[in-house]
Write a structure and sequence with these properties.
Number of helices: 7
Radius of gyration: 16 Å
Strand order of the largest sheet: 2-1-3-4-5
Strand content: 5-15%
Shape: globular
Length: 172
């Protein structure tokens, strides 16, 4: 089963964390798509002399195709606000009926609540984990029984309560 890892990838710390997430998911037996590794990064390619439009168009096409080809989707929500590109990818995944999970290890939230934008929280029908261990447990449970998630029928989080602290914690 293939999972797309959508995450910020602009600092060394972010890229190293993404590689750690990737290792955790691979240990679960998942095939991963990590954009920074599998498609490349725009800035270094452009700095090396590649045409900006060509690079950006290629990365857009590659990442959209990878979202389409995956069965599962993970959005890393860390940062003051989630990464804009990753949010776009979440929208693609949710609209395509992928089971979407979130990982939020960062407690900072814009607006002073524990919630994210409702469009993000409700698209993450697989739940939001707050540590790599929680994420591994949630994904392992999903792999054992895909029906255990609100989104397992391909409907995203439609009609489901998001699994966030402000919605009463874990939902069943």
């Amino acid at each position: 089963m293939r999972i797309y890892i959508a995450a910020p990838l602009f600092s060394q710390a972010e890229k190293e964390f993404n590689l750690t997430v990737d290792r955790v998911l691979r240990r679960l037996g998942l095939d991963t798509y990590l954009p920074q590794r599998d498609a490349g990064e725009a800035a270094p390619l452009i700095r090396a002399g590649a045409d900006e439009h060509t690079v950006r168009a290629r990365l857009f096409t590659a990442d959209c195709a990878a979202v389409s080809a995956c069965e599962l989707f993970l959005l890393v929500l860390d940062g003051r606000v989630p990464d804009e590109g990753a949010c776009f990818e979440l929208g693609l995944a949710w609209a395509a009926g992928k089971t979407c999970f979130g990982l939020q290890t960062d407690c900072r939230r814009f607006g002073g609540t524990d919630s994210n934008n409702l469009m993000i929280d409700y698209a993450l029908g697989g739940g939001i984990s707050h540590s790599l261990d929680e994420l591994a447990a949630a994904l392992a449970a999903h792999l054992r029984d895909p029906r255990s998630n609100a989104a397992a029928d391909g409907s995203g989080a439609k009609g489901a309560q998001p699994r966030t602290p402000t919605a009463g914690g874990e939902s069943g």
